[in-house]
Amino acid sequence: MIALMGGDLVLPDRMLTEGTLLLDRGRIEAVEATRVEPAGARIIDVTGCYVVPGFIDVHVHGVDGYDTLDGGHSVGHIAAALVRYGVTAFCPTSVACGPDDLRTFLGQVRQARVEPDARAARVLPAHLESNFISPDYRGAQPASCLRTAAAGTSDNGAYSGRDVLDAIERARPDVGIVTLAPELPGGIDLIRALVSAGHRVSLGHSGADFETAVAAIEAGARHATHLFNRMTPITHRAPGLAGAVLAREDVAAELICDGFHVHPAVSQMAIAAKGPSRMMAITDATAGAGLPVGSSARLGGRPIHVRHEAAFLDDGTLAGSTLTMNRAFGSIVTRFGGSPVDAAVMCSTTPARELGLAGFGVLVEGATADLAVLDRGFEVIRTFIAGQEVWVNSAARADV
User: Fold this and answer.
1) 2-51+365-392 under CATH 2.30.40.10, yes or no
2) What is the pTM (predicted TM-score) of this model?
3) Are 197 and 135 in contact (CB under 8 A)?
4) 3-class SS of residue 393
5) 371 phi and psi, to 5 degrees?
6) CA–CA dist 75, 142 (Å, integer)
7) Planar angle of CA 109, 114, 116, nearest 5 degrees
8) Across the chain, what does the average pLDDT equal?
């Protein structure tokens, strides 16, 4: 048994100061309101720290120089690196790519899930940010890889997506989320087909108007990719895709919580509008996350450059973030007006619920003991997966 003693425990509905969390056999054995030292337990003093449920990032392309489409064992390297940032589970995320690269990526995801590294973050089914997005809202995604769901060739020159859909069909258990633009030819039908096959459809990289977005939600879309980014903006007479997402309770929205992709005031308004229980903090991190400013890395094989705010292509196009989940948690608390409870809900509880991960994302008795310990500056001190300590910061306090 492990006893995390004296920390501020961030529970689903409140923060319990100077409590004790008991971990045993991979589960949370008990949540105690006082300092408790069970006989025979390993006692870890976490006084002055937050104890939070492990972060679940549903949208991450890479970290520490590794990109999900690098090939080799890149997904495994990302999983091993993410525990440094308090992440205990994640959806490896791809940009639009050719079917061969997609198959290679999904093969890595399968291997990482079948043969998990006990000291690495849990690898969840992938998030395909995918080939079925609008050319006009593609951002840093390669235009040459875009497809439509309709047969033949569309007016914008994109070919049918049958090759990509075949790759998805062959790897169904390892494809969780598929981002698409519903206004594309065949888009609404594709939503219905993907939902029927068990995938979670996310709306994003899209020029959809409000009415088309509502039709997509009615067809089964339940997720929105990086709210406000690469979608039609909200105006008072044309609320667009973002307005539909904010108006509909049945859609959970991703929010890049770096204060750059979305202004802190707008982030605060969006969280107030939907509530933390319908918002998922994400990083949209690239391989540049964790690297020094001025470094170069890759996104889907294309070079990107790390600046103070985010990552950018050679031509200056914004190409994802350099955010980590512990910093997202900190932004919610220090910049967006949220409490540590709100931040834990957005970083852990809501993603777990939306992905159907029962017993994850909360500090309650009987839940899986995936958690992180953060200092007051929101740096990760310790990370636990299934009750086992998988990462310790060199600045961590010694055990009692």
Assistant:
1) yes
2) 0.96
3) no
4) coil
5) -160, 170
6) 21
7) 85
8) 95
Q: Report the largest interatomic distance among the alpha carbons of the chain, rounded to a whole angstrom.
A: 71
The residues assigned a catalytic role are 284
3-class SS of residue 141: coil
Q: So where are the chain's domains?
A: 2-51+365-392, 55-354
Identity of the residue numbered 147: R
CA distances (Å), 393 to each of 65, 243, 292, 374, 375, in order?
20, 42, 19, 10, 11
Of the candidates 63, 59, 112, 65, which has an alpha carbon nearest to the alpha carbon of residue 90? 59
Instruction: Locate 377 and state its tokens.
Output: 């500056």
Residue 12 has which token pair? 């689903």
Q: Among residues 364, 81, 100, which one has the least CA distance to residue 92?
A: 81
- What would the DSSP string read from start to end of 327-363? HHHHHHHHTS---HHHHHIIIIIHHHHHTT-TT-SS-
Among 257, 179, 292, smallest CA distance to 225 is for 179
Per-residue DSSP letter, 135:
G
Q: What tokens appear for 272 in the block?
A: 């107030």
Between β-strands 2-10 and 15-24, what pairing exists: parallel, antiparallel or unpaired?
Answer: antiparallel
Compute the distance between CA of residue 10 and CA of residue 332 in angstroms, rounded to an integer: 14
Q: Which two tokens stand for residue 234?
A: 């909200």
Task: Specify the CATH number for 55-354; select among 3.40.30.10, 3.40.50.2300, 3.40.50.720, 3.20.20.140.
Answer: 3.20.20.140
The token pair at 92 is: 């490896």
- The rounded distance, in Å, linking the Cα atoms of 10 and 8 is 6
* Per-residue model confidence as pLDDT tens digits over 13-56: 999 999 999 999 999 999 999 998 999 999 999 999 999 999 99
Q: Which two tokens stand for residue 177?
A: 């989320």
Q: Which residues of the chain have pLDDT under 70?
A: 151-159, 396-400
**Residue 131 near residue 96, CB atoms below 8 Å:** yes
Reported as a single tens digit per residue, the pLDDT across 58-104 is: 999 999 999 999 999 999 999 999 999 999 999 999 999 999 999 99
